[in-house]
Amino acid sequence: xxxxxxxxxxxxxxxxxxxxxxxxxxxxxxxxxxxxxxxxxxxxxxxxxxxxxxxxxxxxxxxxxxxxxxxxxxxxxxxxxxxxxxxxxxxxxxxxxxxxxxxxxxxxxxxxxxxxxxxxxxxxxxxxxxxxxxxxxxxxxxxxxxxxxxxxxxxxxxxxxxxxxxxxxxxxxxxxxxxxxxxxxxxxxxxxxxxxxxxxxxxxxxxxxxxxxxxxxxxxxxxxxxxxxxxxxxxxxxxxxxxxxxxxxxxxxxxxxxxxxxxxxxxxxxxxxxxxxxxxxxxxxxxxxxxxxxxxxxxxxxxxxxxxxxxxxxxxxxxxxxxxxxxxxxxxxxxxxxxxxxxxxxxxxxxxxxxxxxxxxxxxxxxxxxxxxxxxxxxxxxx
Length: 383
What we know:
- By secondary structure, the protein is an alpha/beta fold.
- 27% of the residues lie in helices and 25% in strands.
- The protein has helices spanning 84-96, 111-123, 130-134, 143-146, 177-183, 200-209, 223-232, 253-260, 277-287, 315-324, 330-337, 339-344, and strands at residues 4-12, 17-25, 28-34, 52-55, 59-63, 65-70, 72-73, 76-77, 99-107, 152-155, 188-193, 213-216, 236-237, 265-269, 292-295, 303-304, 307-308, 362-366, 372-377, 380-381.
- The strands form four sheets. Strands 1, 2, 3, 4, 5, 18, 19 and 20 form an eight-stranded mixed β-sheet that branches.
- α10 (315-324) runs antiparallel to α11.
- It is globular, with a radius of gyration of 20 Å.
């Protein structure tokens, strides 16, 4: 693992943008050196001689992006029977797009196949044991070791038959506590569900006890049902404005509940197809940038033939889109793709910001084009 020095970067953190030099040793951020204020505890080692130097003048540097909803890519379909090689290709695609952390996502499926795929993802490193993942030594370039998988996102099977989307309607399940407990493994950290289903309160309270984030999605909940579920412990809305009842002047529904509930995070797909940019603008102006999360819902087939079957976008493209549409500044868009998802998943102590002592997961962006020039994951220069 080579030591890196990133010179004269415009470092983006949630609270400020500052000119800084970044020193990386053994995969960790050793120093973020403010050009005007260098604390004693941040001084570089006496004989620091980095093996690689990146001149970041004219560039932004952000924390690595964090995608909460990744179903696969053309190289790897997580809903089928992926191989370790295909999964490594998926991780490589994500890293090239600036994503250094993600939640592999499984949708409603035959229960035995679903459990098989959960076990497969666990074998690939999505164990839910983040502290172990962060301590890994990358060694030679290995995408599945460089990328962080804090856990698995189960989108279903406890969803509304009224709003199944691509989920096989015949395989949707009611809340059955033995089944919920069987699926709620330590590796599962996010579960999308329809809270209006019978026993929804009991299920949500159980997930909260297991430190699993519950998210409302593929739901036909009314406004009152959604607001009540937020009180039970739901803290997020999965791909808001998709697979939910549309806004109606006399029946506001779960979408309006998500918009008005101040502490709820709302995830949104910004490919320009799933949600019209003007609706994204309404979302951001209503919720504020602190409670909006950019996700991709990236899938092996993506959006084809006018049908929405996941998306074909990467998270870095979503960042550029929301800036191009004039909805958010670049630092705001970065917040929606880094620190916001980290906060929503209770991982802001270790992901989503550039701070000394943390794992070195960074993206270097050209300030003019917002294209990615370099990605660093676990201290390794991916490109």
